[in-house]
Design a protein that fits this description.
Oligomer: single chain
Distance between the termini: 25 Å
Radius of gyration: 20 Å
Number of strands: 10
Length: 233
């Protein structure tokens, strides 16, 4: 289970994708292009020309780089795919709305021919799996309030991403060097350290509710700062 989405990462750190794309060596970039294609962008509706968004598992929370009308947009998928499966509702991400619903923020009136790339960060899976292990979640347990870990997962993933970027910058350009036009590796490491500290704080008050017997009710509440498990049944 993933506890947050790619758009959550950019709501935490709006410059994250810009910094990642600035890395000269594409093999060292912390993200991957999961899928790409062409389509039409009209207002806040992006239509896929070939195949469907459903086939590519693109839905709410997915992150897209869309080129249309001579401009590149960083867009989050707000809703969809619709019944036709080849259209999603997209919106420019508005910083400062963490935890809330992104309001409609249409890109252009269109229609305009568009090319798109789905951007994925594998660090989400790594951090999510680590959180499940930390809370002792077994394969048969059901987490009833997964959104309780949303913020922790996001800031933890951002911390890992900046750390990998810092290591790349240091290995290639030395302790004080950097690629042209980017922050130095030491700056990335400072950002990573700050987000790791925030990650620890984000977990302090999380109460994870688990259904351990499949009846749909909370059987245990687990906290990382508690010495024992609170059993409710």
């Amino acid at each position: 289970m993933l506890f947050c989405s790619e758009t959550d990462l950019l709501l935490c750190e709006t410059a994250l994708l810009t910094a990642a794309l600035a890395l000269v060596d594409t093999n060292a970039q912390p993200h991957v292009v999961a899928f790409s294609g062409s389509g039409t962008l009209t207002g806040d509706q992006l239509t896929c020309d070939t195949g469907t968004f459903t086939q590519r598992q693109i839905g709410p929370g997915s992150l897209l780089l869309v080129q249309a009308d001579g401009t590149t947009y960083t867009l989050g998928v707000a809703n969809g795919p619709a019944a036709g499966a080849d259209t999603v509702t997209v919106s420019r991400l508005l910083p400062g709305l963490w935890g809330g619903t992104q309001p409609a923020n249409p890109v252009l009136t269109g229609p305009a021919a568009a090319s798109w790339q789905q951007i994925a960060f594998p660090q989400l899976g790594i951090v999510s799996a680590s959180l499940e292990e930390a809370y002792g979640v077994s394969p048969v347990d059901v987490i009833l309030n997964p959104r309780a870990l949303r913020r922790a997962c996001a800031v933890g993933a951002v911390a890992h991403i900046f750390r990998s970027m810092a290591n790349f910058e240091r290995n290639v350009y030395g302790a004080g060097g950097s690629a042209p036009g980017t922050a130095v590796g030491s700056d990335y490491r400072k950002l990573s350290d700050a987000y790791f500290a925030t990650f620890k704080l984000a977990l302090r008050n999380v109460r994870l509710e688990l259904d351990t017997n499949g009846d749909g009710r909370t059987d245990e509440v687990r906290r990382l700062d508690a010495p024992s498990i609170e059993r409710l049944s």
